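stage 2 :: seqdesign
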């Protein structure tokens, strides 16, 4: 990640971009949720979501979090109004905040997301201002981490993973599998 020392120009422009994105998602929500068994949205903001990703400034992250919470609560209301059996989650990544997203899943596709996250032994640290926003929206975050399973060959060939990412090894049918911790994430259900 690149540091945030570069000045971000166009405060009003970014407010408009974030609000336009939220309005677009909210206006298409009913159609998207009814036509799909699972749906997710995350904000992709141009200078921060390029090949070399960097964290947006804190004021943009706060607006992003508020937008994601509003979208999630709207999606939950749509599920309740249409009597659809489904769940809506907020995946709040603590380290690469730019990856945070809202996910809506109908009950028949719930198993699609099994095994993505595992409970974390200790709670991940969250910015106090973010905690206030989450507390105000009455969400109960569960501290988890994103996992990825690699074979022994993939683990030895891939240089970006090392022993500090390794959670455990599993062996079945003579094949060794490495379970790696990728990101800390707070999972909130609406």
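stage 2 :: out
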């Amino acid at each position: 990640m690149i540091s945030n020392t570069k000045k971000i120009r166009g405060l009003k422009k970014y407010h408009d971009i974030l609000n336009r994105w939220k309005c677009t998602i909210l206006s298409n929500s009913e159609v998207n949720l009814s036509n799909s068994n699972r749906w997710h949205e995350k904000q992709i903001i141009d200078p921060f979501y390029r090949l070399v990703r960097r964290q947006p400034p804190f004021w943009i992250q706060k607006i992003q979090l508020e937008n994601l919470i509003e979208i999630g609560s709207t999606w939950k209301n749509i599920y309740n109004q249409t009597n659809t059996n489904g769940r809506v989650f907020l995946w709040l990544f603590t380290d690469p905040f730019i990856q945070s997203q809202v996910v809506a899943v109908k009950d028949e596709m719930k198993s699609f997301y099994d095994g993505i996250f595992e409970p974390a032994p200790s709670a991940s640290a969250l910015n106090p201002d973010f905690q206030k926003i989450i507390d105000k929206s009455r969400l109960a975050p569960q501290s988890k981490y994103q996992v990825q399973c690699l074979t022994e060959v993939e683990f030895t060939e891939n240089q970006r993973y090392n022993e500090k990412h390794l959670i455990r090894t599993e062996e079945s049918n003579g094949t060794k599998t490495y379970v790696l911790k990728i990101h800390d994430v707070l999972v909130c259900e609406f």
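stage 3 :: structure notes
- The chain has a mean pLDDT of 81.
- The first strand starts at residue 38 and ends at 41.
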